[in-house]
Design brief:
With 192 residues, the protein is an all-alpha fold. The chain has 6 helices and no strands. It has a single domain, classed as CDP-alcohol phosphotransferase transmembrane (TM) domain (Four Helix Bundle (Hemerythrin (Met), subunit A), Up-down Bundle).
């Protein structure tokens, strides 16, 4: 266990704290839950930076980092869907959560067949993640209906569009392995 991994684990520990604070019957819950989510987003950058800077990258960290990110985003989007109780919030949130499930499964399968590098994180994925994190912070910071919430929702749609685009790029990169032209090529199959 090293410092980058401890920071990554702290993101997972923040999830129940974030949820409890978000549902407190007080007005400051919006700002504090947005701050917790913002802190979690910052630790995502920090743990990766420290792992590279201190040469402390580990297989456990490489596994845990995307899991922590996806859990935090999925939980935040889920509470926002309930808070806004609107199809306008549900559509981009569902796109983002659905894409994460598809790409996670694709990466796992590609790693299983030894082609994980072809579905590595792309530049567009980093832009998507930034738009997604900023929009979620904006949406968490204020009650539904305020200007900042409307701007956050617009940015969430931008993030959802980038999410679909990056998913297309991932699938395009994986396409030769998903649908090989050689009929004799045997691919592993994993039962659920």
């Amino acid at each position: 266990m090293n410092l980058p991994n401890i920071i990554t684990l702290s993101r997972i520990v923040m999830i129940p704290v974030f949820v409890v604070i978000f549902y407190l019957p007080v007005e400051w819950r919006y700002v504090v839950s947005a701050a917790i989510f913002g802190l979690a987003a910052a630790t995502d950058w920090l743990d990766g930076y420290l792992a590279r800077k201190l040469d402390q990258s580990t297989p456990f960290g490489a596994f845990l980092d995307p899991v922590a990110d996806k859990l935090m985003v999925a939980v935040a989007l889920t509470v926002l869907i309930e808070e806004h109780a609107s199809i306008l919030m549900t559509i981009p949130a569902t796109i983002i959560i659905g894409r994460e499930i598809v790409i996670s499964a694709l990466r796992e399968w590609m790693a299983e067949i030894g082609s994980r590098a072809s579905v590595a994180v792309s530049y567009i994925g980093k832009i998507k993640t930034t738009a997604q994190m900023v929009s979620i912070i904006m949406l968490l910071a204020v009650p539904p209906g305020l200007l900042l919430a409307h701007l956050g929702l617009v940015l969430l749609y931008v993030a959802a569009g980038l999410t679909l685009w990056s998913m297309v790029l991932y699938i395009k990169a994986a396409w030769p392995d998903l649908f090989p032209k050689k009929l004799g090529k045997t691919l592993p199959h994993k039962a659920d």
